[in-house]
Amino acid sequence: MLEAMTGFEAQRPSGWLQCGEEDGQLMADSTLWASSPIAAARHGLKNQTPINNKESVMETREHPHREAWNKGKLVGQKAPLKPKDIWAIRIHLQNAHEVRDLAMFNLAIDSKLRGCDLVSLRVRDVTHGNQVLSRAMVVQRKTQRPVQFELTEPTRTAVAAWIAKAGLRAEDFLFPSRLHDSPHVSTRQYARIVEHWVVAAGLDPSAYGTHSMRRTKATLIYKRTKNLRAVQLLLGHSKLESTVRYLGIEVDDALEISEQIEI
C-alpha cells in the first residue's frame, strides 16, 4: 500500500486529467470509480470498502478516513478567461520577468492545445532554424489526429526570448522540467502553474484550470464569428457535437435569446 499517497489522485496516471477524458467531461464523483472492484483490481488497490453517493470519504482497512481527491473541489468544465484576465496575467508575468511562464501562457492561449500536448512540445515543433513559426502543427496524443495552430506576434516574441534564455536546441523539449526524473514539465506541474497565474490575476482558482487555457481563444472566436466549424478544426475535434458540448454554446446561445425577449 502506498503510505505517502492519498486518495484516487495518487493512482491516476500523469497525463490522465488532460488527455484521458472527453473534453470538459470530468466525472462528477470520481470516488465511486476509484472504489469499484474493477478499478481496485486494475490499480492493485486492496481492502477497498465500497461507498455510496452520500459518503464523502474513501475508506480502506489501513486508512479508515482517507479523503477523496475531489473533496471540496469543483469538477466539470472550467471557465475560459476573459480578455481583461488575459492581459492581467500577461502584465503580471512581464513585470515579474517570468520568461518561461510568459511563453507558456501565450502559447497555451494561441495553440488551444490540451495540457499534455502543450508540455510535450519540442523546440522544433514551433521553429524553423532560428525563426519561430507563425503556424505550427502537432499530432494530438489523445486522438492521434493532427491539429494546426497559429502563433501571434506576442507569442513568437515570448517563445523566442525563452528559447534564447534557456539555450534550447531544436530537439529539446520547449518546457523542460526542473526535476531530473522528468524530461519536461508534467501535466500536474502545468496545472499548478496555471493556478498560480489565476491567483495572480485575482481570480478564483477553483473556477479555472488547464482547460481554461484551451477554451479561452476558442470561446472568443465562436462569440465573435459564430463559426462552429472553424472552432472545431482549431480544437482538433473529430465531431461537431464534441465542440458544441465543450464550449457549452447551446446553453449560452439559449440564454442570449431568452435575454432578448421582454415580457
Task: Please outline the helices and strands.
Elements: H1 16-19, H2 30-34, H3 37-43, E1 48-49, E2 57-60, E3 66-67, H4 83-95, H5 99-111, H6 115-119, H7 123-126, E4 127-128, E5 131-132, E6 135-139, E7 146-150, H8 153-166, H9 187-200, H10 210-225, H11 228-235, H12 240-247, H13 249-259
Antiparallel strand pairs: 1-2, 2-3, 4-5, 6-7
Helix pairs in contact: 5-8, 5-10, 10-11, 11-12
Q: Percent of residues in beta strands?
A: 5-15%
Look at the helices and sheets and give the structural class: mainly alpha
CA gyration radius, whole angstroms: 20 Å
Characterize the main sheet: 3 strands, antiparallel
Compressed to H and E, one letter per element, the order equals HHHEEEHHHHEEEEHHHHHH
Tell the overall outline.
Answer: globular
Mean pLDDT: 78
The tally of beta strands, per DSSP, is 7
